[in-house]
């Protein structure tokens, strides 16, 4: 490949495939419970899916997608500047009820970033990236970097450093944008919404762009997400969301603080100008899922998941299991110390019919490798207990055979 970084990443990923803990296929049980299948064909309990409320098998969403494709065909391949399916308007109108503000839909959240950030961020602005912000936002920011916009990164969730940069950059730039995640997808820690809101009110030049892809559905009124469970959307806040996780459908959106921003994105957003519409099936599914989100059922589903989440974190405390973040979100991360421990623990977990996600280089730094667990309605408390007992055994094995130190391992995650 001629690139040592790429070669190392390739080797790491290829090793996970060879031992059967990466690049897996899936199949569904008759009751709709999704099961992962490793390369040896063994069914496992999924602790790796982000379909938090188990909606992707909901018959109402499936029926909505089928009805839409029968009515409109699979895809209308034309720029939104000229023509769009009426289902697009219907989806954006009902999603505006879910999120409480105007919405622009995109085929993917990545394309939402690509469409929004170059329009919102000017050459005379400055962008401050949280160190852990999602890679897709960083990709979109590179587009404005190429135009000469000032870009810098600060330490993760460091509000003191953020305020210092707002003050300093505000002296020479028109706007200072902070870009962050609502729920950080690897460690499950959260956006400090209330503290950032204070800064938005304090500094006129300060703006925020936050991706709440992993917060939608399981949190917030009508499943509007973690950020909106903490604060109302500020007039200087842009909210990006995903429907490919909790919503059980696909696609993404920008939730705008007002109609003017929506009009700007619809008129000039690159992915919408150059033939990037949502497929008819996705629009039909989005509308059906939105109806669920606007019904009392969403609170019932959220409460069911909350019981599983609370049980998981309470039992981790009781067993003394290390977690990088202890805020009760559906994403949890067990530190492993070194890549070899990922391979060993992954093999043990799959032998126990448990599917997890490996946090490996280059997704995380070499010393920050770990096991990511996604808590969803696909699991029961019995499943959670089985997982935690296996993880407890893995850590005891590491301590006995390697002299593994939890304290030393956790120290690599500080700062």
List keywords for this structure.
Aspartate Aminotransferase, domain 1; Aspartate Aminotransferase, domain 2; 2 domains; 15 helices; globular
Summarize the structure in words.
- The protein is α/β, with parallel strands linked by helices and 415 residues long.
- It has two domains: 4-41 and 298-411, Aspartate Aminotransferase, domain 1 (Alpha-Beta Complex), CATH 3.90.1150; 59-293, Aspartate Aminotransferase, domain 2, CATH 3.40.640.10.
- The chain is 44% helix and 15% strand.
- It has 15 helices and 14 strands.
- The strands form three sheets. A seven-stranded mixed β-sheet has the order 4-10-9-8-7-5-6, with helices on both faces.
- The protein starts with a helix and ends with a helix.
Write the layout of secondary structure elements.
Elements (H helix, E strand, L loop, with lengths): L3 H15 L6 E4 L5 E4 L5 E4 L12 H14 L13 H14 L3 E4 L2 H12 L5 E5 L4 H11 L4 E5 L4 H11 L6 E6 L11 H10 L3 E6 L14 H5 L6 E6 L9 E4 L3 H10 L1 H4 L6 H14 L3 H23 L11 E5 L3 H13 L2 E2 L1 E3 L10 E5 L6 H22 L3 H6 L4
| Element pattern in H and E | HEEEHHEHEHEHEHEHEEHHHHEHEEEHH
Shape: globular
**Whole-Å distance between the termini?**
33 Å
Give the CATH superfamily of the largest domain: Type I PLP-dependent aspartate aminotransferase-like (Major domain)
- Evaluate the radius of gyration: 22 Å
């Amino acid at each position: 490949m001629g690139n040592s970084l790429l070669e190392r990443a390739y080797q790491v990923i290829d090793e996970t495939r060879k031992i059967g803990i990466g690049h897996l296929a899936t199949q569904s049980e008759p009751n709709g419970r999704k099961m992962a299948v490793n390369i040896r064909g063994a069914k496992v309990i999924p602790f790796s899916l982000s379909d938090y409320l188990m909606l992707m098998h909901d018959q109402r969403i499936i029926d909505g997608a089928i009805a839409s494709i029968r009515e409109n065909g699979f895809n209308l391949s034309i720029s939104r500047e000229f023509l769009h399916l009426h289902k697009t308007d219907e989806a954006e109108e009902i999603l505006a009820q879910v999120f409480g503000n105007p919405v622009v839909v995109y085929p993917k959240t990545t394309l939402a970033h690509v469409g929004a950030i170059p329009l919102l961020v000017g050459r005379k602005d400055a962008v401050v990236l949280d160190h852990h912000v999602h890679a897709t936002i960083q990709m979109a920011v590179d587009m404005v970097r190429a135009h000469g916009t000032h870009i810098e990164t600060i330490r993760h969730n460091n509000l003191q450093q953020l305020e210092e940069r707002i003050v300093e950059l505000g002296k020479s730039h028109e706007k200072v944008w902070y870009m962050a995640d609502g729920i950080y997808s690897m460690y499950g820690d959260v956006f400090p919404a209330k503290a950032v809101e204070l800064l938005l009110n304090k500094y006129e030049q300060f703006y925020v762009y936050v991706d709440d892809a992993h917060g939608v559905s399981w949190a917030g009124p009508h499943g509007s997400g973690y950020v909106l469970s903490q604060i109302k959307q500020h007039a200087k806040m842009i909210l990006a969301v995903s429907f490919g996780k909790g919503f059980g459908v696909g696609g993404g959106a920008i939730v705008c603080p007002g109609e003017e921003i929506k009009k700007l994105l619809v008129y000039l957003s690159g992915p919408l100008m150059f033939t990037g519409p949502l497929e008819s099936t996705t629009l039909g599914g989005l509308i059906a899922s939105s109806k669920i989100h606007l019904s009392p059922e969403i609170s019932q589903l959220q409460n069911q998941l909350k019981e599983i989440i609370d049980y998981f974190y309470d039992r981790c405390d009781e067993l003394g299991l290390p977690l990088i973040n202890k805020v009760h979100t559906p994403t949890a991360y067990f530190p492993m110390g070194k890549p070899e421990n990922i391979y060993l623990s992954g093999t043990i977990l799959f032998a126990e019919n448990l599917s997890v996600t490996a946090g490996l280089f280059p997704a995380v730094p070499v010393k920050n490798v770990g096991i990511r667990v996604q808590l969803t309605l696909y699991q029961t408390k019995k499943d959670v207990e089985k997982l935690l007992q296996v993880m407890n055994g893995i850590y005891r094995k590491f301590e006995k055979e390697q002299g593994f130190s939890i304290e030393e391992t956790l120290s690599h995650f500080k700062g």
